[in-house]
Amino acid sequence: ALLFAGSCECGAILAGADIAGVDSLWRWGYNLGMAFQIIDDILDLSADEVALGKPTGNDLRQGNLSLAVLYALRLSPQQEAAELSRLIECLHKGEMSALAPALDLVRKSGGLVYAVQTAERFLYKCEQEQNLWPQSRERQTLADVLLAFQQQLNRLATVN
Prior knowledge:
Elements: H1 2-14, H2 19-46, H3 49-52, H4 58-61, H5 67-75, H6 78-92, H7 99-109, H8 111-130, H9 137-159
Helix pairs in contact: 1-2, 2-8, 2-9, 5-6, 5-7, 5-8, 6-7, 8-9
């Protein structure tokens, strides 16, 4: 998110934006970056490996806990959360048979739905920032980027 934010901030500075414009573009970039990471994490837990271009569940195998997984660990019934923790540890040790049941527990917990809703909130914040900007070709370009993110998230919401 900070990479997105810094890139937008630099672009605003180079374009000669005033401090309010620079700050607004920083916030837009930060929120877009947060949504991007959450969407990437959702894809890692739910996409087809061919479509994703890498193995599904790669983050879990590496021990990286995404928002959806943290949600599942925290808000699932105690027995399911303990089982998910055990499966994550098995994955970290290279036991690939633990992947499918771990992904099922994350889905069952509502973690993916929560992640989609959280990404939607970040994208909404981007939209709110855009509403502060004057009409321009650059604003339209960034609006198109935001629309592409929203469309991807909508596709994910219908799958999960």
